[in-house]
Design a protein that fits this description.
The protein has 83 residues and is an all-alpha fold. It contains four helices and no strands. The model has no long low-confidence stretch (mean pLDDT 92).
């Protein structure tokens, strides 16, 4: 089955685990497509900058919940250093 195409960030592409989570929730996917490429970049970098798998998984779960609630960027994070 082909992977559903979704928008990526300015610098970062959506990693497979985040892609799977985003496409599994219609409300989150709608929010994802509504934010700017720079905001998507921030979410991707926030998730991928985790050093441990448990932290990365938690960031995906928390991030999706925050997007469902209308948050457009990760909170309380210095931001993506790659832009």
């Amino acid at each position: 089955m082909p992977k559903k195409q979704i928008s990526s960030g300015v610098v970062h592409n959506v990693p497979p685990d985040l892609h799977k989570a985003l496409t599994a929730d219609a409300a989150v996917l709608k929010a994802w497509e509504d934010i700017t490429p720079l905001a998507r970049n921030e979410w991707i970098c926030w998730v991928t900058s985790a050093k441990q798998d448990e932290t990365r998984d938690r960031r995906i779960t928390v991030g999706l919940d925050k997007m469902r609630k209308g948050m457009r960027r990760p909170c309380c994070w210095a931001g993506c250093p790659h832009r």
